[in-house]
Amino acid sequence: RIAGEAQAHAALRARFWHPAPALDLGIRLRGQASAAVDVSDGLLADLGHIARASGVAVIVESARVPRSDALQSVVSEEQALAWALGGGEDYRLCFTLPESLEAPAGCFAIGCVESGAGVRCDSAVAAEGYRHF
Q: Are 90 and 40 in contact (CB under 8 A)?
């Protein structure tokens, strides 16, 4: 377990210090995505930007939010979910597509957009995200 844990920590550090922005995905989404944001302030916080700018409600199903094997091997499920929902500096794209379009390969559908306002998530885990001011 120690060697595996050390490898997981190394993988997590490498991902943090050397992020790989999803530029190719962003290019593929042009003309398809109705909204998109890079996740730098935390998933729920950045979805809040989409919800406010678009005048909609964004509904997130926490079980569908991806978490890396490396992360899940070194922290509790609750902590992994809190970081997945509220942690920042991920540099991943979160986007909305019309229902008629399939998500590109490697992407995860984590919820839906409805009429209303704000972001709702079924998780009781506290995940505030980064606040600039």
A: yes
Structure tokens at 29: 């989404």
Q: What is the DSSP string of the chain?
A: -HHHHHHHHHHHHHHHHS----HHHHHHHTTT-SEEEE-SS-HHHHHHHHHHHHT-EEEE-GGGS---HHHHHHS-HHHHHHHHHH------EEEE--TTSPPPTT----EEEESSSEEEES--S--------
The Cα–Cα gap between 96 and 88 comes to 19
Contact 42, 128 (CB under 8 A): yes
pLDDT (tens, 9 = 90+) of the chain, 133 residues, equals 456 888 999 998 998 898 888 899 999 999 999 999 999 889 999 999 999 999 999 999 999 999 999 999 999 999 999 989 998 777 889 999 999 999 999 999 999 999 999 999 998 676 666 666 5
Backbone torsions φ then ψ of 11, nearest 5 degrees? -65, -40
